[in-house]
Design goal:
single chain; about 280 residues; alpha/beta; six-stranded mixed beta sheet; globular
Length: about 280
């Protein structure tokens, strides 16, 4: 049997790819008042701007059960678990605790994707495709690590208040001035969310987003991801521009941000991920 790849629901991958590649997905949790919602499992209306909405990682017990089930499904080939950045969530740390509590800990390898959303999803894809091609446990792990270290992620958000309130924005980005007259362009740097630029209008912010993606893609093959929350028209426009300006994009995935990320990014957010070389 093949190595099994596990991830969390922030990875935002299409259901058909998850099914095709046998990827196991552990839901993150969104807390709405006293109600706990498992992302991708429980349906619930969410006001993303409400102060009472928060998120939480899966427990070590949940992850241990998921890893054990995946390991059994691999018939001993092993498990590679790829989770969103440890700088943004406690999920990776919960995974580390889960692995330490397992008897076959050496057969479960953890990868910090250094990202979130499709920036986690693309390393997951790289790992799962390597596994499907017959890769060993170490080869699948290295495929995920290479993709995580090579990817570049950029975001445009309407406001940074939700990110700062949740502690997801690096203090190095603390020179915004009046957000009412500027639109921040953010980037992930070694798993941390930092300010890249700020402009006066959303149209200029999207232009910066596309230019940044084009710059890091270069002239080679690349995989592109576009995500949004309540900004389908803007995401479609960005996707169209990326198709034109990065002609060697091997694949372009589009998705909405799931609730666990949406709580922190806010309505109107658009993100672009570029993985030079593609996902294998």
């Amino acid at each position: 049997m093949a190595v099994v790849v596990v991830t969390d629901s922030s990875a935002s991958l299409p259901a058909e790819l998850i099914g095709e590649l046998g990827i196991r997905v552990v839901p993150l949790h969104v807390l709405v008042g006293d109600t706990e919602i498992r992302e991708g499992v429980d349906a619930h209306a969410i006001d993303y701007a409400a102060d009472t909405v928060t998120t939480s990682a899966p427990s070590p017990g949940e992850l241990r059960d998921a890893y054990a089930e995946a390991l059994a499904g691999s018939n001993g080939a092993g498990v590679v678990a790829v989770h969103l950045s440890r700088q943004l969530s406690a999920t990776w740390e919960a995974g580390r605790q889960a692995v330490r509590a397992m008897d076959a800990a050496e057969s479960v390898l953890l990868v910090d994707s250094l990202g979130a959303g499709l920036a986690t999803g693309f390393p997951v894809l790289a790992a799962a495709r390597c596994a499907a091609a017959g890769g060993t446990l170490d080869e699948v792990y290295e495929a995920a690590v290479r993709a995580a270290e090579s990817s570049h992620t950029f975001f445009v958000v309407n406001r940074t208040e939700q990110l700062r309130r949740g502690g997801r924005l690096s203090t190095a980005a603390g020179f915004f001035g009046s957000e009412l007259v500027s639109k921040p362009v953010l980037q992930l740097v070694q798993g941390r969310l930092e300010l890249r630029d700020k402009v006066r209008t959303r149209s200029k912010a999207f232009a910066k987003l596309v230019a940044a993606a084009e710059e890091v893609a270069g002239a080679g093959i690349a995989a592109i991801g576009v995500q949004h929350l309540g900004a389908a028209e803007a995401a479609e426009s960005v996707t169209t521009q990326l198709r034109e300006r990065i002609p060697r994009a091997r694949e372009i995935l589009t998705a909405e941000f799931g609730p666990a990320l949406a709580v922190h990014l806010g309505v109107g957010a658009v993100g672009v991920l570029v993985l030079p070389g593609g996902c294998g």
